[in-house]
Amino acid sequence: MKLLHAADLHIDSPMLGLVRYPGSPEEQLRTATRDALCNLVDLALKEEVTAVLLAGDVYDGDWPEMNTGLFFTQQMQRLAEADVPVFMISGNHDAQNKMTRSLRLPPNVHWFDSAEPGCKVREDIGLAVHGQSFAQAAVTDNLAARYPPPRRDLFNVGLLHTALDGDRPGGHQPYAPCSLEQLVNHGYDYWALGHIHQRSVEHDDGGVRVVFPGNLQGRHARETGAKGCTLITVDGDLKAVGDIERRELDTSVRWHRVEVDMADASDLEEACALVERELADQVADHAVHGRLDAVRVVATGASQAHSELLGRQEEFTGNVRQISQQSRFSSVWIEKAGVRTRHPERWMPPEQVADVLEGLREEGHRLGADAERVRELVERTRLRTRLPRELVAHFDEDGWAERTAGEAVEMLTVLLEGNR
């Protein structure tokens, strides 16, 4: 038996704000989630898998148009024609109360209801899948506690959208909380989890596997590195997972964060030379034909070039983008270039730094929570005319004030902490 486990497809997820960047490869970014789903179906057919497991957030929210749902059902129909069953649940992004549109799914797709946990048995293939969809976005109940007991003489899979029992990187909300120990002791052979966008094998011992496959396709600069799904091979007795293999499916777009230590740079020119070297080592030397490498470059560390980099950020960004136009960087698109360097020497008495940082963070929090105050401040001081266009483009987006205040605090904190 072979099973293909994927989660967090976020089909047609909007690439928020990316159109504001010069030279944005908008079309390739926009279609990346669809390309990844096609790759998933291609892999399922090539590997002749027994079933496909989709652990929530197939969609990014309610469809702006029917084409999103039609595309998904088209891909599921490809699996139906190969007699491959699909088992799926809804997560916080495509919870039942968020989706006002719907399409009839092909007969090979079983969607688990949100009212209570269910079990779908396929004795012909030796599989029992248990699952429950989210009824609304914010599910704080322990859904797994009510999952049915395992079915004897079958391979049991628990399909669950959850953050487990702790804070997770990437800003994931603690939905459907449960403990790893609870899952391991429930009696299932494999827990197919979703919600966390970084791949993680949470448990791989005693015959029980608990796995987050990560999301199918990175969508922005915080979702870096290879993305894809997990291929599970089940031994013949249906009670032992053999191999769990990571399969990469992000063949259209991959996101990178390239941090460049500026310790050896004394000016802007030397800083750009260091960026060029790191772009080659970390990205261009590993480029794949046809894949766009979307890169956020961040200058870091204590550097003699700090003041020049901070004062000439727009020029630094322009130089970095110019570097990426060389033929050897043909796969690279620079999403953003940031400066997080600091002075190499102390320029403020150390005893003052802690007090200044505390006040800075408090004021940043107040500003971030009050978008109107920030907007009024910008307009009153005519600051808007002196801000970069890419920053002004944020002003009408939800959460722009919080993000902008956070970035400002982060930049000033880096500056000040260089004095400790």
* Count of DSSP H/I helices: 11
Beta strands, count: 15
Helix-strand topology string: EHHEHEEEEEHEEEEEEHEHHEHHHH
**Stretches where pLDDT falls below 50 for ≥5 residues?**
none
Subunit arrangement of the protein: single chain
For the biggest sheet, the summary is: 6 strands, mixed
Cα separation of the termini: 58 Å
Query: What is the C-alpha radius of gyration, as a whole number of Å?
Result: 24 Å
Mean pLDDT: 86
Structural class: alpha/beta
**Into which percentage range does the β-strand content fall?**
15-25%
Choose one word for the global shape: globular
Strand order of the largest sheet: 4-3-2-1-11-12
Please give the share of residues in helix. 25-40%
Word description of this protein:
The chain has 420 residues and is α/β, with parallel strands linked by helices. Helices cover 30% and strands 23% of the residues. The protein has 11 helices and 15 strands. The chain has helices at residues 26-30, 32-47, 67-81, 180-184, 268-282, 306-311, 313-323, 350-368, 371-380, 389-392, 400-417, and strands spanning 2-6, 51-55, 86-89, 109-111, 118-122, 127-131, 155-161, 190-194, 200-205, 208-212, 228-234, 241-248, 253-261, 292-302, 332-342. Strands 4-3-2-1-11-12 form a 6-stranded mixed sheet, covered by helices on one side. A hairpin with a 2-residue loop joins β9 (200-205) and β10. α2 packs parallel to α3 (67-81) and α8 packs antiparallel against α11. The longest helix is centred in the last third of the chain and has 19 residues, at 350-368. It is globular, with a radius of gyration of 24 Å. It starts with a strand and ends with a helix. The mean pLDDT is 86.
